[in-house]
Automatic annotation (TrEMBL):
<protein>
    <recommendedName>
        <fullName>Oxidoreductase molybdopterin-binding domain-containing protein</fullName>
    </recommendedName>
</protein>
<dbReference type="GO" id="GO:0020037">
    <property type="term" value="F:heme binding"/>
</dbReference>
<dbReference type="Pfam" id="PF00174">
    <property type="entry name" value="Oxidored_molyb"/>
</dbReference>
<dbReference type="GO" id="GO:0006790">
    <property type="term" value="P:sulfur compound metabolic process"/>
</dbReference>
<dbReference type="GO" id="GO:0043546">
    <property type="term" value="F:molybdopterin cofactor binding"/>
</dbReference>
<feature type="domain" description="Oxidoreductase molybdopterin-binding">
    <location>
        <begin position="67"/>
        <end position="214"/>
    </location>
</feature>
<dbReference type="InterPro" id="IPR014756">
    <property type="entry name" value="Ig_E-set"/>
</dbReference>
<dbReference type="InterPro" id="IPR036374">
    <property type="entry name" value="OxRdtase_Mopterin-bd_sf"/>
</dbReference>
<dbReference type="InterPro" id="IPR006311">
    <property type="entry name" value="TAT_signal"/>
</dbReference>
<dbReference type="InterPro" id="IPR000572">
    <property type="entry name" value="OxRdtase_Mopterin-bd_dom"/>
</dbReference>
<dbReference type="GO" id="GO:0008482">
    <property type="term" value="F:sulfite oxidase activity"/>
</dbReference>
Amino acid sequence: MNNITRRDFLDKGAVSLLKLSLGLYLADAAFPWPAHAKEDQSIFDNFPIPEITSASEHYLQQIDLKPAVSARKWRLAITGEVKKPLELAYYDFNKIERFSILNTLKCIGDPVGGKQAGHARWEGVRLRTLLRMAKIRSTAKDIVFHAVDGYSDSIPAARALGGEVLLAINMNGKRITKGHGFPIRAIVPNIYGMKNVKWIDRIEVTSYDYQGYWQKQGWSETAEIKTFSTILKAGISGAKSPALIAGVAYAGSRGISAVQISVEDGPWENVILKPAMSKYSWNLWAYKLESRAGSDVTVKIRAVERNGDVQQKGGWLARAYPDGVDGYHTIRVTDDI
């Protein structure tokens, strides 16, 4: 169980939200406010948690060293069950219609309360566009992403043709860094990070069910992100002031209708919830905990989906293997005032 003192809140100042220029096609219209979200949203002004995660703060995960790829020499091949195999250079992507999406990524191996999650705006071209250019065959079953470092994973062809899977070249308005997959990475909404393959140099269309790197080791093939809620900040801004407990919650396109907190195993209370920026965006949330001088307080958090389903309880001993962890993030807040 994590120990976070109320003074941890002072570690970082306010974080400005990233604002990107308009003009790109967006597939992510903002969600309407949940019915209960009538609270004063001013608490999210100068909030200590950024709604958009910078490239430097966004989690990174790979099976080997980050490969160095030259934009000038790099090529993307599209092969397999297509009538017209393609080979594209990096700068060919400037000639194809751009698409932008806000998306939350999370590592399937992230434990309860872990920080291997991030929310960013990705820009590139629809995978569907390239598959149509290659004249994908009706026999297609899986779309396999092959990476420069030898990693591979796949998604069903039906999902790839749905229109929201992206081959991203930019992150938050800037060229994707080497760590995040330069020159091209996949962004597959609703799916854990392992299928959002980085450093792609070949896309193979197969007529069979392809088993990727992690599937061969028993991890989930569908890899749908489970609902999660995480406490990222627990702090106090001054003596005898209420402590701010804050974090993020996400349920994929299922959406979040409420985030709830329990203090000292008491009844569940709704926290203040900020509407999500898009259907694939996480929600920021906040709760003001009254000061209890001289005592420590245990708090736990859970999320409720828009259809009323409550996040799975799981437990601290729950394992991420094979399809992601369930559990309520629980911390002990130390009152040292």
